[in-house]
């Protein structure tokens, strides 16, 4: 083959790699972010490894369900992770498939490290390497007097706090680790994007155990942003305010209405759209960001 022919093949392969890196929402240099497609001249995004595969933890309800359905419509292969409610997870999967998307449901308690590791291995086998992650699963834990320093029963106080920390912090950390193994450009991946679902509670401070866990999640992101960027991975957060899910009872929403300038709770889809944006290539220069979505209520100003 002539030198001109070799040059054309090289340019086509490089272009394919760059497009795949961009579609996966990667960061860093496209030249180092994506392995070249096996077939010279064929855009990498047409290869199986170019598929956008997202795991949404806690994807069977609330914000997780809303973002799962939205991402399915945007062309992602969606993994709807759930802990115990199989019927709700199956319903989300059915909605995605009915709209022409690809989705599976996988049961895994994110507080269980072995279960998380197995989930990521299963996803890789069934859908291909994970390219995107939404750390949405979490629990609120003790509220009211039982969530205070001196009002809680000291017999099991620490264990109740750990029951919040394990899924909300350790679970998110292990999910980031397993996702990075598959996304890392230094390990043959295409790069990718992670979004953590944090909360304004991290700054407001209540309920205390939940606020502690979300503050720790924010600190985790601050610590990981540099390391992950070196592997072509972006990590960002959203901090929802009062949102209409089964985690926020109506009486709690009403009691907090005075603190919300827009005088209403958020809809799950209003949070999901920001998550989808941060995962997308439209946010390709964003990493380490934390977007407050709280109807005008600041992170920690008006309580």
> CATH superfamily name of the largest domain?
NAD(P)-binding Rossmann-like Domain
Number of helices: 10
CATH first level of the largest domain: which class?
Alpha Beta
Q: List SSEs in N-to-C order.
A: HHEHEHEHEHEHHEHHE
Architecture of the largest domain, according to CATH? 3-Layer(aba) Sandwich
Strand residue percentage: 5-15%
- Kindly report how far apart the N and C termini lie: 71 Å
Descriptive account of the structure:
This protein is α/β, with parallel strands linked by helices. The protein contains ten helices and seven strands. The chain has a seven-stranded parallel β-sheet, with helices on both faces. Helix 4 links the parallel strand 2 and strand 3.
Topology at a glance:
Elements: H1 3-23, H2 30-33, E1 53-56, H3 62-73, E2 77-82, H4 86-98, E3 102-107, H5 113-126, E4 132-135, H6 157-183, E5 192-197, H7 201-204, H8 208-229, E6 233-240, H9 250-255, H10 268-279, E7 290-293
Parallel strand pairs: 1-2, 1-4, 2-3, 4-5, 5-6, 6-7
Helix pairs in contact: 3-4, 3-10, 5-6, 6-8
Provide keyphrases for this structure:
alpha/beta; Rossmann fold; 2 domains
């Amino acid at each position: 083959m002539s030198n001109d022919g070799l040059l054309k093949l090289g340019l086509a392969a490089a272009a394919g790699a760059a497009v795949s890196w961009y579609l996966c929402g990667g960061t860093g240099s496209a030249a180092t972010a994506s392995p070249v497609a096996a077939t010279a001249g064929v855009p990498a995004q047409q290869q199986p490894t170019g598929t956008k595969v997202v795991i949404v933890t806690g994807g069977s309800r609330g914000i997780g369900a809303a973002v799962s359905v939205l991402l399915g419509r945007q062309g992602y292969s969606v993994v709807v992770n759930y802990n115990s409610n199989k019927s709700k997870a199956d319903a989300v999967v059915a909605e995605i498939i009915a709209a022409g998307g690809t989705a599976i449901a996988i049961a895994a308690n994110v507080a269980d490290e072995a279960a998380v590791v197995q989930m990521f291995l299963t996803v890789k086998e069934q859908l291909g390497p994970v390219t995107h992650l939404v750390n949405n699963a979490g629990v609120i834990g003790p509220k009211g007097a039982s969530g205070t320093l001196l009002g809680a029963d000291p017999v099991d106080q620490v264990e109740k706090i750990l029951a919040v920390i394990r899924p909300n912090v350790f679970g998110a950390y292990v999910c980031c680790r397993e996702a990075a193994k598959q996304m890392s450009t230094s390990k043959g991946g295409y790069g990718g994007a992670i979004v953590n679902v944090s909360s304004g509670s991290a700054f407001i401070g209540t309920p205390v155990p939940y606020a502690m866990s979300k503050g720790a999640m924010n600190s985790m992101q601050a610590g990981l942003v540099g390391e992950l960027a070196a592997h072509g991975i972006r990590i960002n957060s959203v901090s929802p305010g009062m949102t209409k899910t089964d985690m926020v009872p109506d009486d709690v929403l009403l009691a907090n209405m005075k603190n919300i300038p827009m005088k209403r709770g958020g809809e799950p889809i209003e949070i999901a759209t920001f998550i989808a944006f941060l995962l997308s290539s439209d946010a390709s220069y964003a990493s380490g960001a934390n977007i407050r979505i709280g109807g005008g209520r600041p992170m920690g100003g008006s309580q």
